[in-house]
Amino acid sequence: MKIGIKKVTKLAVLTALCGIANSTILPASDVAAATTVKAPYSTAKKWTAKLAKAGYVFELPNAEKGALYHQSGKPYRQKTLKKIVKNQTLFKVKRVNKIHNGVSVDLVSKNGKYKGNTVYINGILNHNSKIKELQPLIKAELRVMDARGDQRPTAELLKQAEQIATGLTGKNKQIALTSIKQLKEFIKYGTMAETPDLLIGS
User: Cα separation of 136 and 171, whole Å?
Assistant: First the structure.
């Protein structure tokens, strides 16, 4: 999904969110390998609870080799990954793991057929972010996050996002209001863990 934000700005926001301005984000293969070499890691309990509550709404939109690993540490075959992408298989987050200066996430598919882990930042996308009616809200919220990352005022941008959210109806409004609530948490703390569920992967 294409969002109107410059690549440089997105990188700056990600760096600020992760708090690793002087570190290197581990690629998918390295993070997965780290989990199998008994590297030190910890479970982000609050973050895990938040994403697990979102339910089966996450997918692997660009699943290439190294995008998903079995619980044993062995990567899923390319043929299987292509099938997961084609079928837009939905996953639920079981656990968020902090590993060195990276993050990985344990997933389970809705049908229970696929279980494993992937790199959180690069790996998953909230399926609801594809809903056409939510696109204006997503763009507005990303502008808020961009401003927060650059330490610019967010009040007016947040107000615009809230107006968009309250103008929606039905299930979309419910998703939007939840996202706004989470966005306010992000404004307050400014870490990746407070990123609204709806924006994950955007």
Answer: 16
**3-class SS of residue 131:** coil
d(CA 2, CA 61): 13
Angle 55-58-63 from CA coordinates, rounded to 5°: 150
- Residue showing tokens 């967010």: 154
Residue 42, strand partner residues: 98
- Angle between helix axes 170-189 and 135-149 (nearest 10 degrees) is 0
Number of helical (H) and strand (E) elements in the chain, helices listed first:
8, 6
Question: Which two tokens mark 159?
Answer: 């107000």
Find, among 200, 191, 179, the residue nearest to 120 by Cα.
Answer: 200
- pLDDT digit string, tens, across residues 109-151: 999 999 999 987 778 999 999 999 999 999 999 999 999 999 9
Gap between the Cα atoms of 136 and 167, Å rounded = 11
